[in-house]
Structures are given as structure tokens and as C-alpha cells.
Amino acid sequence: MNLVIQSTGPLSADHHTTLVALARGSRVTPVDANAVRIAGADRAQRADVQTYCATHELDYAYVDADRQLRDFGLVAMDMDSTLITIECIDEIADFCGLKAEVAAITEAAMRGEIKDFNESLTRRVALLQGLDASALERVYDERLQLSPGAERMLAGAKAAGLKTLLVSGGFTFFTEKLKARLGLDFTRANTLEIVNGKLTGKVVGEIVNAEVKARTLRETCAALSIEPTRAIAMGDGSNDLKMMAAAGFSVAFRAKPVVREAASVAFNHVGLDGLLRLF
Question: Which of 91, 148, 184, 211 gives 179 a disulfide partner, CB atoms 3.0 to 4.6 angstroms apart?
């Protein structure tokens, strides 16, 4: 295995020496100023490596030494708090004075404390009834920001020949804008019902929950004539777990504990472009 260590800033030589010893690796090779690759790392040393990295705010990942990014054919991403920094529904709710109430439900759902995602989404969307649909545009224009490294990650994935899928329990208003802005290949999300310029408090059609996310990943792979094992899935909440399990490699991005535990790797500090340094 290769052990890839990443930091948000330059990695000192002291880190190199300590990490090679902790990992019982054979040699260390700089990837760039902020990352190193340790060859021949012993996964039995993971607990020690994890403790050291947590103490020094480093991200680590064990990766098969012969794996390359171009071996994959698809990168599938969650939207809210993964590709972008916000939870769109929480910011929409702010325009009707209900952000705290909606955000509490969102947080509980993402931690996995509310098991029925459909119910949690239905409850939150119902609170938006009567809100002027122009609030969606304001959220996009005034509050939506891409996560650090998002554009670099997408450019690197595309250069390696991967297609891109944005699959979200959020809303098509935002996924479609991001698809056009970022040149994404596929998107799937929920559609908010709008009548006479107002949100009705309802979602039109099938709700994109954990099962639908996983199914969308598999269907997209089938359309690309690749196996799901050649997909990378990135997410942060419990409703991403089934999609991540269906993929051959998964990244927990600044994620809830239950997601970090299940993922192939976790990025708690570095940006989404950390993906490019792994292979």
C-alpha cells in the first residue's frame, strides 16, 4: 500500500521522518509541497498514523500502489456541503426566518439520526410554503460557494478521462446551474414545485434519497458501460453511504463521523483536489 499524507500547507521534513517510521514504510516521495507518498506502508499501523495526523491536522489515505486515477471512469459527488460549502435548503429557509429550525432537521438527517430521509426532506420543504421563488436565485448568487479545490479536482478528473455526476438530495435549481457552470456530464436532484412564482412546500416526483443516489450511480455506470467498481463517490452525510458503498472508491469530505468511518478515505482538512494526489 501507498500511504498518502496531505496538509493544507507545506509539510516539514520532520513530518516526513516521523510518518515513515510510524507507517513502517520503505521510502517517502514528495507529491508536491503539501503532500507525500510513503511506499510499502503497513496498514496495521493505521491507528498510530491516524492519531498523529489528527494531532497535526493532516489527512491520510491508504491506496493500492498500482492504482491510477485513469483506472476509474466516473466521479460522483454529493452537492450540499460536498461540492459546495452550504446546505441550500437551510439558506432558502433563512429567507422566511426558519433557518435554525430547518438546519436542525438537516443536521440530524446528515448524522443519520433521522432514518427516513424522505420524511425529513418533506418536513423541511413544507416549511418553505409560500416563499417567493426568487429566493432560490438569491441563494445561488449571494451564498453558494464551491468547496476548496472543487474546480481543480474536476479538471483533473476530466483530464484523466472520467465523467462527472452530481447527485443530490437537494434541488435541480442548483444542480442545473452548476452543471452548466462546471461542465458536468450528469445530474440528479429533487424538483421543488413552484406555482405562480411561489414555492408550494412540495417536491415533484421521486425524492432523491440514499437508495436513489446509489441507483443513479449504478445506472450512470451502466450508461457508460463501466462497472460501479470504477466509480469514485464523494459525500458528507448519511444519505451518501449507499452511493459510496456502491462505488469502488469513496471519499468522505468534511463528513459526519458515520461517513468517515465507512469511506475509503476521509478529507477533514484538505480540499476536494486532494483526490488528485492519491493516485
Answer: 184
Q: How far is CA 9 from CA 33, 56, 58, 270, in A?
A: 8, 11, 10, 9
Q: What distance in Å separates the CA atoms of residue 207 and residue 119, rounded to the nearest whole number?
A: 10
Residue 56 sits in a domain of what CATH number? 3.30.70
The answer to the question of residue 2 being in a domain is yes
Contacts of 158 (CB under 8 A, 6+ apart): 164, 183
Active site residues: 78, 80
Q: Could you tell me the pTM of the whole model?
A: 0.94
Cell of 6: 496531505
Q: What is the pLDDT of residues 61-112, one digit of tens each?
A: 999 999 999 999 999 999 999 999 999 999 999 998 999 988 898 888 888 8
Question: For the chain, what is the domain count?
Answer: 1
Q: Which domain holds residue 55?
A: 1-66
